[in-house]
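> example.struct
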């Protein structure tokens, strides 16, 4: 099953739901079986307040992003909540409806997302940061865990891997240290294995 979604995944302006741009808005579909979302179109708000769908700005912007099982579970629970709300209103939830929208099925405005993000962070006792900064946190944590920059580039939709490396060069020292430590562990393991074989 797939459904339209916009709001945070791993873009570049005011927030993303599941890392997707809100300004300009981005929409995508998510797949509960394969735990993926597909970024395939953009949603722009015009000066008159209306919204239009367009193609992503570049080939790299159209992409598939893997989601964690816990994220998919959260989306399923949220969808059930949506269904109940529609039943109370005497309406039905269509496959093409946006996942994050108002009760009329229309896109949420950027300031609505920002306000909800700030309120939730405060309730959780967390330092309030820009929603867009959560994207940077996501990328930085992945790089520090040794995830290849190419994977991070694809998740963020950067036009090139060089852009990803340049943007997150501040985490490079930590990555270099981790790589050196890992290399040392490999060498030590190899030496220990050879010693065991020789003594045996």
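> example.seq
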């Amino acid at each position: 099953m797939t459904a339209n979604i916009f709001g945070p995944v791993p873009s570049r302006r005011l927030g993303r739901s599941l890392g997707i741009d809100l300004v300009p808005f981005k929409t995508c579909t998510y797949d509960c079986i394969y735990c993926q979302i597909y970024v395939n179109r953009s949603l722009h708000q015009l000066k008159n307040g209306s919204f239009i769908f367009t193609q992503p700005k570049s080939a790299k912007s159209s992409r598939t992003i893997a989601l964690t099982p816990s994220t998919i579970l959260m989306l399923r629970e949220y969808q059930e909540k949506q269904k109940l709300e529609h039943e109370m209103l005497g309406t039905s939830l269509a496959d093409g409806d946006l996942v994050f929208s108002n009760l009329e099925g229309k896109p949420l405005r950027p300031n609505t997302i920002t306000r909800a993000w700030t309120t939730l962070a405060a309730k959780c006792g967390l330092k309030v940061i820009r929603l867009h900064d959560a994207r940077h946190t996501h990328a930085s944590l992945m790089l520090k865990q040794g995830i290849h920059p190419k994977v991070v580039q694809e998740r963020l939709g950067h036009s090139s891997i060089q852009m990803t490396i340049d943007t997150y060069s501040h985490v490079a020292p930590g990555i270099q240290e981790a790589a050196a430590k890992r290399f040392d562990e490999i060498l030590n393991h190899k030496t220990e294995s050879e010693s065991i074989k020789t003594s045996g």
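> remarks
Strands lie at 2-5, 25-31, 36-45, 51-54, 63-66.
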